[in-house]
Specification:
Layout (H helix, E strand, L loop, with lengths): L8 E7 L4 H11 L7 E7 L4 E7 L2 H4 L2 H5 L5 E7 L14 E5 L2 E8 L5 H10 L9 H11 L5 H9 L7 E5 L4 E5 L8 E6 L5 E6 L3 H6 L2 E5 L4 E6 L2 E6 L8 E2 L1 H6 L5 E2 L2 E2 H15 L6 E4 L5 H11 L7 E3 L17 H6 E3 L1 H4 L3 E6 L6 H12 L4 E6 L21 H4 L2 H8 L3 E4 L2 H7 L7 E2 L1 H4 L10 H7 L3
Helix pairs in contact: 4-5, 5-6, 9-10, 9-16
Bound molecules: adenosine monophosphate (AMP).
Adenosine monophosphate (AMP) binds next to helix 13.
């Protein structure tokens, strides 16, 4: 089985820091929300590349002993999310290999849409793969390149790829960071001042990783750009011709942390504006605005500020739902969602509630939450969603289910309202979403809301067949 669509990930890299592995550990810890299934760090000490990865959470995997074995002044780190069935350690990143161009480790965020096709060609020629991740395909292309240097071979490889990737490549003495020509997935650049006027360079999927380590955000790796950091310093080069930008709007809607700057824009600014515009577009007669935490908080604040309706934390989230619980055989109603959320009756009883969440995917969670709020005594529940209906699967690295399972792909807003048992349901319009992320230059991808994909998907019939019902 190929492991597709499930590459929601966080990546991090650091160059020129005496405690590189510790810094990478903190970096991926701050990116943990981007993936909780597995984590890995590779470090390099000029002669070799070390690597440790495991299933689980960053804080559990990287003990002082493990970090002590990751020598060197440069490191890359990765956190990976995958759906059930794909949680094999073989797919955990980074991938460390020895090639004809030396030792290297690679980690990436995104989904390479022609990876299956390339892999099939390579397999037909005798190549052996040990995992099902796109990352391994890139390593094969680097190894097979006629170019002599790693940077040139990587350039060669990247030019054969389609789709979404933000990647970090580590060799014993170099760090290379690259972003796909459309810039689907984010990749921020930062600096840390070290003793003796030296500078340590850092890269991360989101700037919240820089805040934790005390690095300064310097901008983004540009779409189609390759940044090479080595003993001679840092160089930036465009490896691919300019293409239309297609930054993932879902990073601003849901995926990134609100304290991050993503694609050069504070995520919280977008989310609050989504909430404000939602209040203008869909006003409600209500007593309280309640977010679905954590994803709905910033938009709910915007909604409350714009409408003048008081903001109340009427749902409290338990953040410690890491393990799987055995449900008592005497079934508890809506057990799964209750583990995560609990209503505050005192705030909800007898109230007309505007419930704000970022998105409805399958609709099952929303339905349980609406019920929960009503059972806590709310007299009315008006559900407001801070993005348009999700009608199409993502092929660029966000885990969305097949079109079959996307409730808005197959049902009208009123049908969804009835399914989730809300008194009213309204979504933010596409025009308002564009305004909320300040997309006057048309630099974002909205494919999950429009079905219009910014790249040709001709080479991925298999992908389409598996995601679009026939
Ligand atoms: P449901 O409608 O039951 O599928 O659940 C929707 C909820 O899942 C929303 O409240 C989102 O916060 C969350 N969500 C949406 N997209 C994703 C995603 N790609 N990965 C994880 N959670 C998501």
């Amino acid at each position: 089985m190929f492991d597709k669509f499930h590459e929601e990930c966080g990546v991090f890299a650091v160059y020129g820091h005496p405690e590189a592995a510790n810094v990478a550990d903190l970096g991926i810890f701050a990116l943990q929300h981007r993936g909780q299934e597995s984590a890995g760090i590779a470090s390099a000490d000029n002669s070799t590349v070390h690597c440790h990865k495991a299933m689980g959470h960053v804080a559990d995997i990287f003990t002082p002993t493990v970090l002590g074995g990751l020598h060197g002044d440069k490191a890359i780190g990765h956190t990976r999310y995958s759906t059930a069935g794909d949680t094999v350690i073989l797919n955990a990143q980074p991938f460390r290999v020895t090639t004809n161009k030396g030792k290297m480790a690679l980690a990436h965020n995104g989904n390479i849409t022609n990876a299956m096709e390339i892999r099939k060609e390579l397999e037909d020629e005798g190549a052996i793969f040990s995992a099902s991740s796109d990352t391994e395909v890139v390593l094969h292309l680097i190894s097979r390149s006629r170019e002599r240097t790693v940077a040139a071979a990587l350039r060669d490889a990247l030019l054969q790829l389609e789709g979404a990737f933000s990647l970090v490549l580590l060799t014993p003495n170099q760090l290379i960071v690259a972003r796909d020509p459309h810039g689907f997935r984010p990749m921020a650049m930062g600096q840390m001042e070290m003793s003796g006027d030296r500078i340590s360079y850092v890269f991360a999927s989101e700037t919240c990783a820089f805040d934790l380590i005390g690095a300064v955000y310097m901008g983004d790796v540009e779409p189609g750009e390759m940044v090479i950091v080595g003993p001679e310093g840092m160089t930036r080069e465009r490896y691919a011709p300019k293409r239309k930008r297609a930054q993932c709007v879902f990073e601003h809607v849901y995926f990134s942390r609100p304290d991050s700057i993503v694609f050069g824009r504070p995520v919280v600014q977008s989310r609050e504006l989504m909430g404000r515009l939602l209040a203008r577009q869909h006003p409600t007669n209500a007593d309280v605005v309640v977010p679905v935490p954590d994803s709905g908080v910033a938009a709910a604040l915007g909604y409350a500020n714009e409408s003048g309706i008081p903001f109340r934390m009427g749902l409290i989230r338990n953040h410690h739902v890491g393990r799987t619980f055995i449900e008592p055989s005497q079934a508890i109603r809506d057990f799964g969602v209750k583990l995560k959320l609990n209503p505050v009756r005192h705030l909800l009883k007898g109230k007309r509630v505007v419930l704000v969440d970022d998105s409805i995917v399958r609709g099952t969670t929303s339905r349980k939450i609406v019920r929960m709020v009503r059972n806590a005594g709310a007299s009315e529940v008006h559900l407001r969603i801070s993005c348009p209906p999700t009608v199409s699967p993502c092929f660029y690295g966000v885990d969305t289910p097949t079109k079959n399972e996307l409730i808005a792909a197959n049902h009208s807003t009123d049908e969804i309202r009835r399914y989730v048992e809300a008194d009213s349901l309204a979504y933010l319009s596409l025009t308002h979403l564009r305004e909320a992320v300040d997309d006057s230059k048309q630099e974002y991808c909205y494919a999950c809301y429009t079905g219009e994909y910014p790249t040709e998907l001709v080479n991925i019939t298999e992908l389409l067949e598996s995601k679009v019902p026939r």
